[in-house]
UniProtKB/TrEMBL annotation:
Organism the protein comes from: Smittium angustum
Keywords from the UniProt entry: Repeat, TPR repeat
Any one cellular-component term (Gene Ontology): protein folding chaperone complex
SUPFAM superfamilies found in the cross-reference section: TPR-like
Recorded family membership: Belongs to the RPAP3 family.
Signal sequence bounds: none
Keyword match Repeat: yes
Cited PANTHER family: RNA POLYMERASE II-ASSOCIATED PROTEIN 3
Keyword Repeat: yes
Protein name: RNA polymerase II-associated protein 3
Domain RNA-polymerase II-associated protein 3-like C-terminal, chain residue ranges per copy: 185-276
InterPro entries with a match to the protein in the record: RPAP3 (IPR051966), RPAP3-like_C (IPR025986), TPR-like_helical_dom_sf (IPR011990), TPR_rpt (IPR019734)
TPR repeats: 7-40
Length: 307
């Protein structure tokens, strides 16, 4: 009984540290709880969540497996193990965990959204593997060629520098134009993902892409494919944008639109303290430069993104 009370005390301390973002010390407290009472599955799943935050995915998977051995119907353990396995590249195993969790809790939104994400990753991987398989089967013929040009012409071509002639200059200008990123409004999630890849994740290009979208349509555009990397890229791009532009009202609308994205809660699970600091800096800047009537909305955005 004493051991059990000590375990609960350690768990409570771990929960407090976890809420503050102090995952290292939270891990210590959850480990102490396990030492006092190793047969309680909650302690294992709590420590697993902390390990996920620390990106120690193999250990998180192991803790979830231990928790499930003590409580096979623990949906949280299945969901957390699926996240660990997804990050380890074990997509089929992650899908199995989520399918089993969904059988027990058919309306669990977190499980539903994560399953959609894993299925999308599986389809992408399978399509890539299929394409690579086709390419491997295509025979490649190598033909030896000889230079039949007269020597003086061949030498002239070799010495010619396109930068020193008009045609070369025009070609260089065309190449520069081809590199420019000028997106049009995406009509679907797939088209948006294509444009996102073309943007090369540069702040200027991400802002250009976001400018083509109505902020309140962000949830529909991202669908179930939103991940932490999207959040971090957008936040960093907004921060860079505000250094040169006074686009405060638009930035506010983008942030508010992002709060409504269905997978946002999952994306925020692994958010670093550095990114949260950037979010706070953006919100501080925006709050100083837009109407006070939006103060409640800004507080809500801050609560969702940084708590």
């Amino acid at each position: 009984m004493i051991q059990s009370k000590q375990a609960e005390t350690e768990k409570a301390s771990g929960n407090q540290k976890f809420k503050k973002g102090d995952f290292v010390n939270a891990l210590t407290h959850y480990s102490n709880a396990i030492n006092f009472d190793p047969k309680n599955p909650i302690y294992w799943t709590n420590r697993a969540m902390t390990l996920l935050k620390l990106e120690r995915f193999k250990e998180a998977e192991s803790d979830c497996t231990k928790g499930l051995s003590l409580d096979p119907k623990n949906v949280k353990a299945l969901w957390r193990r699926s996240i660990a396995r997804k990050n380890l590249g074990l997509l089929k195993e992650a899908k199995d965990d989520l399918s089993w969790a969904l059988m027990m809790e058919p309306t669990n939104k977190s499980v539903i959204e994560e399953l959609k994400s894993v299925e999308l990753l599986l389809k992408t991987r399978e399509a890539k593997e299929k394409q690579e398989s086709i390419l491997e089967k295509v025979p490649v013929s190598v033909h030896k060629t000889t230079n039949t040009l007269p020597k003086h012409i061949s030498q002239a071509i070799k010495n010619d520098n396109p930068k020193n002639n008009l045609i070369g200059t025009e070609l260089n200008n065309i190449n520069r134009k081809n590199i420019e990123f000028n997106p049009t409004k995406p009509k679907s999630t797939i088209e948006f993902e294509r444009l996102w890849k073309e943007s090369k994740n540069t702040p200027e290009n991400i802002i250009k892409l976001l400018k083509t979208i109505e902020p309140n349509s962000l949830p529909n555009i991202f669908g179930s494919s939103f991940e932490e990397k999207h959040f971090v890229t957008i936040i960093n791009s907004l921060y860079a944008h505000l250094q040169k532009n006074s686009d405060y009202q638009w930035t506010f609308k983008i942030l508010e639109g992002m709060t409504k994205i269905s997978r946002m809660n999952i994306a925020l699970m692994f958010l670093s303290q550095n990114t949260k600091q950037v979010v706070n800096q953006i919100l501080d800047e925006v709050s100083r430069n837009i109407d006070e009537k939006y103060s409640h909305n800004l507080k809500n955005i801050r609560r969702i993104f940084t708590s």
